[in-house]
Amino acid sequence: MTAEFVLTSPGEESIGPRLARLRQERGLSTAAAAAKLHCDETILQALETERFNEIGARVFAQGHLRRYAEFLGAPVDEVLAEWSRRGAAFAQPDLTQVPRPPARAVDPQAVGRRVGYVAAAVVITLAAWWILQGGGVEKPSAAPAPAAPVATASMAIAPKAAVESLPVAPVAELPPVVAAPVVVPAVVAPVIVETPVATPPARAQLALALTPSSAESWVEVYDAAGKRVFFDLVRRGNRIDVQGAAPLRVLLGRADVTAMEVDGRAVTIPAGFMFNSTAHFTIAHDGKLARVVKSAENASASSTLAPSTP
After folding, report:
1. Closest CA to 229 of 246, 212, 254
2. DSSP at 143
3. Residue 269 C-beta-side C-alpha neighbours within 13 Å
4. If you write DSSP's letter for every residue of 207-234 in order, what string do you get?
5. How far apart are CA 64 and CA 218, in angstroms?
6. pLDDT at 147 over 70
7. Measured between alpha carbons, how far is 236 from 218 in angstroms, rounded to an integer?
8. DSSP letter string, 252-297
9. How confident is the model at residue 220 (pLDDT cuts 50, 70, 90)?
10. If you write DSSP's letter for every residue of 38-104 in order, what string do you get?
11. How far apart are CA 307 and CA 254, in angstroms?
12. What percent of the chain has pLDDT over 70?
C-alpha cells in the first residue's frame, strides 16, 4: 500500500473535512448516509478521513468520491479536479482471480467396482461362447463301415471250361464324356459403411453490448477459455460491443446505471446481483445470468473491491 498524501495546502479545507462538514449540516451520521447510498460505512469514513488507499484501486475510490459528493451537494467538478490535481497513483486491481469450484474427488472403491463389473461380464461372455461351441461334451464316434466280403476256400469255384464257354457280350462304344463347365461363384467384396463421427459443436458466440447511462463504469469481460476480451473504464453514454465464446464472465463497476444487451436483446441485471452497485456474473449461451459468488477467504477483499465506478 502506498503512503497517505495531503490533497490541499495548509489553510485550505481539504476534500475529507469538506465532505464531513456537509454531512453534518444535513444532520446525517456516516451510518445513515451509507444506508442511503447502499454501501459500507467504512467507505464513507475512509473518504472523510482521506484514507483513500483503504478503499482499493483508484477507479473505485474515485467512483465513491463522485457519488458521495453528489449525494451531499458538493461541487463535483471542483472535488474531482482537486482529486486529479493532487491525488497519488493507485495500483490496478487484480480482479482476474475468480474462485473455481473444487475438483470432484475420485472414489477408488467406485472405480474398483466398475472394473469388477467389466471383468465379470467378460468372463460370462467367454463361458457362454465356450458352451455353445460344445466345449466339455464328448462327441459320439462314427460307426465303422461294413467290411467287404472276403472270398474263402470253401466257396465254389467254377470250372475253367465253363468259364471259357460263357458268351461274351459285345461292348458298346460309349459316347465321349463332355465335362460340364465349372462355375466359380464371383467373390463379392464386402461393403464397408463408414459411420460419420459426430464432431463436437462449436461453442456458441455471444454478442454483448454495454452502455453506462449516467456515470462512468469499470467493465471487464472474459470468454469461456478465460481470455480477457475487454478491460477498461467506459465513459457515460458510450456503448461497447464485445463478442466471445459462452459462457461470458462480466464484472461491472456501476451495474445500477449500465444497460446490457445479449445478442441484440435487452437483459436486465437483477438487483440481487449487485453489491455497492458492483455486479459480477456469467452469461450462458442461452442468455441466462448466474451470479459469481466469492469464496469465504475472499469475502473481506470483495467488500473492498466491490464499490462502483463513476
Report:
1. 246
2. P
3. 26
4. EEEEEESSS-EEEEEE-TTS-EEEEEEE
5. 13
6. no
7. 11
8. ETTGGGEEEEETTEEEPPPGGGEETTEEEEEE-TTS-EEEPPPPGG
9. very high
10. TS-HHHHHHHHTT-GGGT-SHHHHHHHHHHHHHHHT--HHHHHHHHHHHPPP-PPP-----PPPPPP
11. 8
12. 61
Find all residues with CB under 8 Å of 35, minimum gap 6, and list them.
Answer: none
133: left (phi over 0), alpha (psi -120 to 50) or beta: alpha
Q: For residues 143 and 42, what is the distance between their CA atoms, to the nearest angstrom? A: 107
What 3-state class would DSSP assign to 199?
A: coil
Distance CA 243, CA 75 (A): 39
Distance in angstroms (rounded) separating the CA atoms of residues 167 and 220? 123
Residue type, 186: A
Taking only Cα atoms into account, the Rg of the chain, rounded to an integer number of angstroms, comes to 47
Name the grid cell of 224.
Answer: 469461456
- Residue that is written with C-alpha cell 466491490 in the block: 306
Please report which helix (H) or strand (E) contains residue 110, including its range: helix 108-132
The three grid cell numbers given for residue 161, joined into one nine-digit string: 471250361
Q: Which residue, 204, 209, 243, 211, is CA-closest to 227?
A: 243
Q: Is 298 exposed, middle or buried (0-12, 13-18, 19+ CB in 10 A)?
A: middle
CA torsion angle 80 82 85 91 (round to 10): -60
Give me 96's grid cell.
Answer: 482476474
Q: Give the global pTM.
A: 0.39
| Class of residue 75 by CB neighbours under 10 A (exposed 0-12, middle 13-18, buried 19+) | exposed
- With H, G, I as helix, E, B as strand and everything else as coil, classify residue 248: strand
The answer to whether 212 touches 252, Cβ cutoff 8 Å, is: no
Is residue 227 scored above 90 in pLDDT? yes
